[in-house]
Amino acid sequence: MMSTMKNNTDIVNPVTAVVADSNGEIFDLEGYAAVGMAGNHLEVLTGSETVSMPHGSELMFLPDRMPIVYNLSLDQFETLEEDPYHPGEPLFPVAVFNSPGYVNTATCAYEEEDFAAYLPLFSYGAVGWHQDGFCSAVIQVDEEPRQDLRLMKMEKVHAGIRAMRSLLPDNRLRSHLEKCALEYSCPAAKNFFIGRCEAPLPTSRKCNARCIGCISLQKEFKIKSPQNRITFTPSPEEIAGVALAHLQKVNQGVVSFGQGCEGDPLMAAHVIGPAIAQIRSKTSYGTINMNTNGSLPDILSTLFDQGLDSIRISMNSASKKLYTAYFRPVKYCFEDVEASIDMAIQKGKRVAINYLNCPGVSDSKEEADAFQAFLERHPVDLIQWRNLNFDPFRYWKIMSEAVSLGEPMGMKNLLERIRVRFPEILFGYFNPPRERFEQATASRQK
Ligand code: SF4
Q1: pLDDT tens digits, residue range 110-151?
Q2: Among 126, 183, 321, 337, which is 20 to 30 Å from 54 by CA?
Q3: The Cα angle at residue 254 between residues 251 and 256, in degrees rounded to 5
Q4: What pLDDT, on a 0 to 100 scale, did the predictor assign at position 441?
Q5: Span from the CA of 439 to the centroid of ligand 1 (angstroms)
Q6: Which of 285, 261, 276, 281 is nearest to 311 (CA)?
Q7: What gap in Å lies between CA 136 and CA 96, rounded to an integer?
């Protein structure tokens, strides 16, 4: 049972609730307003706090849970165990998996049945019905159409696969990426074959973290990992082959180590280092980036010396306790991650934070203060605001056991606070080419 519920008497322009029946049919519920959740805090969604559901977003039906809505005539929050218009008919909550570039300001509001299992690894944004369309509780942080499916036609992907087969016939990494593009529908792998933006360089089979929401290896929470980890370690030649095929073709191209289908790339530095050296011996074009947990500063320092341009460090929190509760690091600690960031900044490299955010935790006062203090200590170039793909209510409970979390301030207020305090830090979602950082620096110096 939710411990705190706030009645909202001054609701202006409420958004209508959407629910699903047991056949998965989604419909709006006349007389009830949609509700957003942040931990155990509830808020009625209004027209001014939502936008039309972004293109490419997906609606999801949540099993073994009951929707929380706002009864406009009785002026109260309600958990619906059945359809008020068809007594006896169960109702289920509906959430939205918003497209890349949009930060959830609230998650779907529901109560779990006692027998409910963990939700699969997606983010569960709050959604409603407004002005004849679905609307999401989000803020846009990146307008780049890098993963816009309308620009990634499958016929172009297939044509690219044929071309790369003849260019890199015996390259195992090339064929692994075919599986990623066709079976996992990985946008980064598709972009490699289409020849646009950023290409992935999955390399590592191991990781020294045990993230509760790991998308490539799940052992505990009876959750299926959406991808399987790469089953071989590509050679430096195979990595360089794929990277050069992309960088020599794509203007301001980016190639990135550290993908969803692998462990942490720092654990494969023995092949990544020589690969980077091979790439840079052939071309100075493009950006070589690494998405990593940043756990091994010395190894990272060597990779920078071999030509790595930028890093994106993943973290769910700037508080050591909350970080440790999520990443469950093995033989490293939060301070090692901070040391990696400081070393990268000292070397003049570009540093982004992959901030895995979730309303109720990220916008709690405790986390907001920790994040501000962290950015004061470590002036990074970019914050990538990424919705955490994990059961939002269970995540809040796990984090609340690690640190007692107060009333959330709202994601909108959090982003505004960080933007005002750190005007020089870019907000985004994707790994930008190094030219973008240079442009931002140049425009700041004007
Ligand atoms: S750092 Fe990445 S690969 Fe490692 S456990 Fe976390 S999500 Fe999985």
Answers
A1: 999 999 999 999 999 999 999 999 999 999 999 999 999 899
A2: 183
A3: 165
A4: 75
A5: 32
A6: 276
A7: 7
Rounded CA-CA distance 208/378 in Å is 23
Taking the CA of residue 141 as centre, how many other CA atoms within 13 Å lie in the half-sphere pointing to its CB? 29
In the chain, which residues have pLDDT < 70? 1-10, 444, 446
- The count of residues in the chain is 446
Q: Looking at ligand 1, which residue's alpha carbon is closest to its atom 6?
A: 211
Identify the three-state secondary structure at position 346: helix
Q: What percent of the chain has pLDDT over 90?
A: 92
Angle between helices 154-167 and 172-182 (to 10 degrees): 170
Q: Please give the pLDDT value at position 121.
A: 96
Which residue's C-alpha comes closest to atom 8 of ligand 1? 214
Ligand 1 pocket member 26 (CB < 6 A): no
Which residues lie across from 314 on neighbouring strands? 354
Q: Which atom of ligand 1 is nearest to the CA of 210?
A: 5
Ligand 1 pocket check for 391: Cβ under 6 Å? no
Classify residue 15 by its DSSP letter: P
Centroid of ligand 1 to alpha carbon of 214 (angstroms)? 5
Q: Which of 293, 334, 389, 390 to mutate to test the pocket of ligand 1 (most atoms within 8 A of CB)?
A: 293
**Minimal-distance CA residue to ligand 1 atom 3:** 263
Most ligand 1 atoms within 8 A of CB, residue of 203, 204, 212, 214 to mutate:
214
> Is ligand 1 within 6 A of the CB of residue 356?
no
- Give pLDDT, residue 225: 86
Is the torsion defined by CA of 251, 252, 255, 256 positive or negative? negative
pTM for the model = 0.95
| Domains with residue ranges and CATH for the chain | 3-140 (no CATH), 196-445 (3.20.20.70)
Per-residue pLDDT of 180-231, as tens digits, reads 999 989 999 999 999 999 999 999 999 999 999 999 988 877 788 888 899 9
Q: What is the pLDDT of residues 268-302, one digit of tens each?
A: 999 999 999 999 999 999 999 999 999 999 999 99
For the chain, give the mean pLDDT: 95
